[in-house]
Write the structure tokens for this entry.
Amino acid sequence: MSTDASTDTEKSAQDSSEYLDSRWKNLSGKQLADEAVTVATRQLMASTDFKKPRLATLAKYWQLYDGKVQKKLRQLFNVPIPVFPGMIDTLNAQYDTPIRLKFKEGDAADYFKVQKINGAFQMEVMNTAQNSKWDSKLRMARKHAIMNGIAIPKLTAESDPEYKSELEIVNLKNYHFQPRGGLYNENHLFNGEEDIEKTRSELVSGARSGSYDQQQVKELLRLSADSDYLPDGRSDMSEKLSRFKPLGLNPDNTTYVGESVFKLASWILNIDGTRYYLCWHPWTKIWLRFEPWKDMCSSELYPWNPYTTHEDDENLLSKSYGDDAYAACDAIVAMFNQELTNREKRNFGTRYYDKDMFKDVRKLDEAQYRPDALVPADTMGGTKRISEGIFEFKSGELNGTVNLIDWTVSTLGRNNGANDMAQGSVTDVSKKASVAFAEQKSVSKRLSWGAQPFQDMMAGLGKRYIYGLKDHMPSKMAIRMMGERGWEWEQITRLDLDTTKDVDVLIESTDKQQEESDMNMEKRKNALEAIGADPILSPIINAKWRASELLSAVGGYEDAEIAEATDTKSNNDKKSLAKASEAIQLILQGKQPVQWFGATPAFMQKIVDFASDNRATLGEKFDQLLEYASSHEQIAMQNIERKAMEDARAMQMQQGIAPGAAPAAPGAAPSKAQNPGVPPGVSHAMNIAQLAA
């Protein structure tokens, strides 16, 4: 009996195990990809249906913002006064606060590594290439967020043919997500993007390079050649997916580009707890690339990093500032046009006339605008009065329109932050100073609160940037870093990305920093002046630090300018440092720079310092740098002597002494310095170069 019971238990466990086994378990690579396409297509359609009502609403907002007002029945005027765009632009200006993203080491041992990561990131942000332009693209993201309630930045990195990262702002109509996935898109079961246009030649090139599956590309091109092809053979499916149909070679079509264009979709979906990347053509349901997302991105984070202005923990599509302003602004436009229409009717109202009394209609009409006009009238032998022959339909006067518009604008601006002060208007004289200050403080608090989602999004971009470096950066990459003598060229290697602890991402608002700096500037200035005047404190305070603080906090000088001003050893000048940086870059690229006959000790020292600081990673280039620097020794000495003679001649002329008339000091011993006329620090650098040579 016990044996039968044991057998039944084992069979039941086996049946349960088979029931719990995933339907994906026994699928091969191509079968899994084909099934993933079916699932992703359904996800795309579900997301499209979910967004459709919201996109229709937002379309009205963008039309009003662009000054397009729907024509209304029996309303003569249709003037779109810019109340709505004015408020949206004001909010854009208020939230256009420069945000500074900075990486901070989690462990003290990672300090120099993190400084190099900061240098690489700053070069990325300042880059004006199309794939970068961070300031411009983040400005567009803020505009999308204010109008739509959501903005979708996307940060990706690649290493084919060379490393680059790319920041994009994806339009809401092209972004897809789990409809009821909640606020945080990382919790969604899928994320994706549609309307990625690729030409036929780009598909072929991708297939040859290995980015796309060759057989799948071949099948896509074959099916797309059939103009009668419909996905699944169903008209409802073709209607929803018609926007993915190839544009073709129709010269009469305004979308003509010279070759077929395919609208692809890029998708990341969960299969059995693992994220997979899928690139496919929804119209034909042909996939072009399918692989685990971890193989492409080690962090497994979605590249899309959306943020919302009014966070809702249950819905990624939350309300926007456009929702708050649209209804009232639309009413203002309607009231304004009603007033114009009413004025038109009052000034040029409808009249009727007795055709038996006024038989010459042309003269009657001309009398409306011709002075002293005479119009013949038949009074039927005096039995009718002329006033009985004409009747005017009068329109009633609209009162209070201006006051109502002003009240609506004022109330709306006060509640969404775009008040009269924010829009640049002079504050109403009826407002007391305390009231105006309270409003300004309230707006400031609201802006600080409203900027938090943007700052969280920036932190997410910073995290994705670091992972992009780790996955795609070459073994070495040149970067610019702030050093003791200003901006200097350094190298970041893959070893620098291997930190002891995770790197922290700090977000700083430059406006907030400026505000705090202005408040603390006077205190710092007074403290520094007090230290300088105190004979006890002054000797124990670092003079260079004190000078740097005065130049930075009080003078507002940049770090590079301060570094140049406080470097008294090498007689820095921008031209020498720029030439040295150029030479360093050429040597790092395997090229030989020509000699610079304007070389100075600062030029040589920068090259030697760079070689010394990076000796462990430079290899043969270390000797090349030292050899190139030492080759300028005689040139630098001649330039120093010439400069010394010019300075001496200028001083003699100022003192009224004839050039060359000043005798040498009695008993003066000749200089025993190894490099006469050269500052000690530079002389030491030149000696290192000589020894290395």
Summary: The CA atoms of residues 49 and 389 lie 63 Å apart.
